[in-house]
UniProtKB/TrEMBL annotation:
One of its GO terms (biological process) is DNA catabolic process. The gene is xseA. The keyword Cytoplasm applies. Its main location: cytoplasm. It is found in: Cytoplasm. Belongs to the XseA family. This is Exodeoxyribonuclease 7 large subunit. Residues 16-105 form the OB-fold nucleic acid binding domain. Heterooligomer composed of large and small subunits. Pfam families: Exonuc_VII_L, tRNA_anti_2.
Amino acid sequence: MRPDDITPDEGGRVQTVTEFNRRVKELLKGGLPPCWVQGEVSNLRVQASGHVYFSLKDAGAQLGCVLFRGDATRQSVKLRDGLQVLAYGQVDVYEARGQYQLITRALIEHGAGRLQQELEQLKQRLAAEGLFAPERKKPLPLLPRTVGFITSPTGAAVQDFIRILQRRGWTGRLVVLPAKVQGEGAAAELVAMLRTAEALGIFDLLVIGRGGGSIEDLWAFNEEPLVRAIAACGLPVISAVGHEIDYTLSDFAADVRAETPSGAAELISSRYLDCVERLSRAGERLDELARTRCAQARQQLDHAHSRLRLLSPTAAIEQNHLRLDDLRNRLGSALRASLQEGRQSLAAARSRLAATSPEKRVQLESHRLLALWKRLESASPQSVLKRGYAIVRDEAGRPVARAQGLAPGQPLVNEFLDGKVRVRVE
């Protein structure tokens, strides 16, 4: 068939690119279950969002991978270009570009998978023997006076351990028991030092551990001879290996597991600080009780002293002096009160006498008479004329109050303040 003879109808329904990529995605995800893929890390990119993009490659091909932020924070492997790893994930298709990639969920370094299987098998076998049973665990001493730390004397872990004990004021004695903590022969050295510490008989507590590292770095603490030696040790043992996320078989065999060597130092010093605090509280309580009892005794002594003073002749004389002073004060107060009362009575009598005196009544009546005269004076015709008015009278001398009733030519007399004027009505 020639290309010109192929039509869209013969190929089925026409699909968009998005639809086609979605079908590919469904086929890949449905046909390929999650699995482990081995390869070398390359093109490593860490985005500001926290997502990690990289490729896994071998001699013949490469595979795009993405490790989202939530999964990336849970990984103990520090990715770098060229690192051989095993990646566990699910294939997916990024439809926008038509690219498939491995959505990675877990990472371990190449070779760690085999070690992990061996570790799990040994753990199950030792657990079946009862080496990790809780009833085998020994309690830690409340206040260990001498602590032995089996570790590398040049590692950072021992410096952190010492610094925390010093900062928290721990007053016990620490002895660093040097031993290799990784590599060939490390487990044998740790076992020998553990037995030496037990034979010395000077330690109340042992700590065995080191700082963090890969599973290969920590492997000495997973070896069977060391695990059995820790479980069989007659002294209480704290295992402090690696970081918080690191677990070794020594952690399960020890009496107590600390997340880190620093955590072991905090555990030891915390128990010490608890005792110091309890002792401090007891001292404060004792001081408080002593102060209370002293205050009660002082109060009883004062009471007895007061009673003794009351029974003595001196006290009676002093009481009589006080009574005499009191009577003198009361007599003086009574005399002053009587004198003040007499003065008030005299003042009241003077007031009543002044109120009934004729002179005052004469003055009052004079004022009333003057007021009446002023009222009479203001109502007199002479007072009206002084204000600029005139009084009109007829020939008979009668006052004329209205213009109505007057006849033209009628003679009238206008009386002013300074004289009279004759007039006629017009």
